[in-house]
């Protein structure tokens, strides 16, 4: 009983602190991941280029999540992704009343980051920013906007499946009763793996905030396809959250 009272009396982060942490974490993810895609190689700034830095981009996204998880996770839970927030809520790990604020903070953090990338590009080599935007600004897409020409249904399937995988890892490694040591590292490496699998298919979303942040500077094509990278990561995350709660969250007295 005394332990329960102590837990109840323990201070918790304020709503403002949680939302700030989510905004900063998403800012870091977009700045690091999309920034690497844009600056590390002309693959993402020169249409038709044969160069590729998939491994560097994949690790950039994974590293930002590792860093963000340890820096901001103790404050907000370290979602940095509207799909993750909705999936965690579906699993019963977050109150639904907190979801809108988290999502708004994540989208704002991502857009601020991509705006800073644009500002940096303004002072880049002649024509760099125009070329980057003409190539989609590292946005997600299918068909002519897919790095390897995959179609819409390929993007839909891979976003559902990989976002679900991401949620299963997040929920499994952060379980209150059976937490995993170095959960942030496991989650970051999972995101790296997800990018290694799916960058050639659709430039990897699994995160609507990341997709929105890039697409707003990527032109008409990425914006017209953005709905897929909002809807289907959320579908995958929600399915995973519901499934985890139903299938893997059970306990028994011993």
UniProtKB/TrEMBL annotation:
Under PROSITE patterns, the record lists: MIP
Major place of residence: membrane
- Name this protein carries in UniProt: Aquaporin Z
Its Gene Ontology molecular function terms? water channel activity
Note one Pfam family from the annotation: MIP
InterPro entries, alphabetized: Aquaporin-like, Aquaporin_transptr, MIP, MIP_CS
Q: Which family does it belong to?
A: Belongs to the MIP/aquaporin (TC 1.A.8) family.
Q: Give the organism the record lists.
A: Microbacterium tenebrionis
Subcellular localization, per the record?
Cell membrane
Its taxonomic path starts at: Bacteria, Bacillati, Actinomycetota, Actinomycetes, Micrococcales
Q: Where are the transmembrane segments?
A: 23-40, 52-73, 103-123, 150-170, 182-201, 226-248
| Protein's membrane topology | Multi-pass membrane protein
User: Any idea which UniProt keywords this protein has?
Assistant: Cell membrane, Membrane, Transmembrane, Transmembrane helix, Transport
Its cellular-component GO annotations read: plasma membrane
- Please tell me whether the keyword DNA damage is annotated for this protein: no
């Amino acid at each position: 009983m005394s332990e329960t009272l102590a837990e109840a009396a323990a201070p918790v982060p304020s709503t403002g602190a949680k939302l700030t942490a989510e905004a900063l974490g998403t800012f870091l993810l977009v700045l690091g991941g999309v920034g690497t895609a844009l600056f590390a190689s002309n693959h993402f700034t020169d249409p038709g280029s044969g160069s590729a830095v998939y491994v560097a981009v994949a690790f950039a996204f994974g590293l930002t999540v590792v860093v963000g998880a340890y820096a901001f996770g103790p404050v907000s839970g370290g979602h940095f992704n509207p799909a993750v927030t909705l999936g965690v809520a579906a699993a019963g790990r977050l109150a639904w009343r907190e979801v809108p604020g988290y999502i708004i903070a994540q989208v704002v953090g991502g857009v601020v980051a991509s705006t800073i990338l644009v500002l940096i590009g303004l002072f880049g080599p002649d024509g760099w920013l125009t070329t980057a935007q003409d190539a989609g600004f590292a946005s997600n897409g299918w068909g002519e906007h897919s790095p390897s020409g995959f179609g819409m249904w390929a993007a839909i399937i891979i976003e559902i499946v990989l976002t679900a995988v991401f949620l299963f890892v997040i929920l499994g490694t952060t379980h209150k009763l059976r937490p995993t040591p170095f959960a942030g590292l496991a989650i970051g490496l999972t995101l790296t793996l997800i990018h290694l699998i799916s960058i050639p298919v659709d430039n990897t979303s699994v995160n609507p905030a990341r997709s929105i942040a890039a697409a707003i500077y990527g032109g008409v094509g990425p914006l017209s396809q953005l709905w897929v990278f909002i809807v289907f990561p959320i579908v995958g995350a929600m399915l995973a959250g519901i499934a985890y709660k139903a299938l893997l969250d059970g306990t028994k007295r011993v």
